[in-house]
Specification:
172 residues; mainly alpha
């Protein structure tokens, strides 16, 4: 019977945590949008800050091209000058935190399993591996860092809560 409760806890932590995290992201965006609207209305200048199309999305977003890039693409292929290769350290703003949803599910599985197994120190390993894997992207993109923190804390709290409830109520 314990195996059933552990399996249900893992599935609940991993897959039900996905819409919970999405809800927290939506709430954070709503709060940011209200703050931005109040800031723009409060200044009276009417100059809005540049909007990052990827600020609340992990999906590919077509970003507007600068006029020079559009003109270069309009030129015939024979006259086109090859552009220099981009810096390897830069991170594309068009897609942030690629694979974050899948990583989040795996993170919630690992956290729930660590608590159910009585090894909460394993949570530190999960967070450390996740942080090291995302370090370059987090350093280069403040929006990614904010999403990383919100998503990680939401996932950790959800998985910990599910595991603790399962352990107290069903595994006694």
């Amino acid at each position: 019977m314990n195996a059933l409760w552990i399996t249900l806890a893992l599935l609940t932590a991993g897959f039900v945590g996905w819409p919970v995290t999405a809800l927290v992201f939506r709430l954070a965006r709503t709060i940011d949008d209200r703050a931005d609207a109040a800031g723009v209305a409060g200044t009276g200048a009417g100059d809005a800050a540049v909007v990052d199309p990827a600020a609340d999305s992990t999906a590919d977003v077509e970003s507007p091209q600068p006029a020079a890039d559009a003109a270069a693409q309009a030129a015939p292929a024979a006259q086109a000058v090859p552009e220099p290769a981009g810096d390897a350290d830069t991170v594309s703003n068009a897609r942030i935190l690629r694979g974050g949803a899948i990583i989040g599910v795996l993170e919630r599985f690992a956290v729930c399993l660590a608590i159910l197994a009585g090894q909460p120190v394993a949570i530190a390993y999960v967070v450390a591996i996740k942080g090291l894997g995302r370090f370059a992207e987090l350093k280069a993109t403040p929006v990614a860092a904010e999403r990383f923190i919100i998503g990680t804390l939401t996932s950790l709290l959800w998985a910990s809560g599910v595991a603790a409830l399962t352990k107290v109520l069903f595994l006694g």
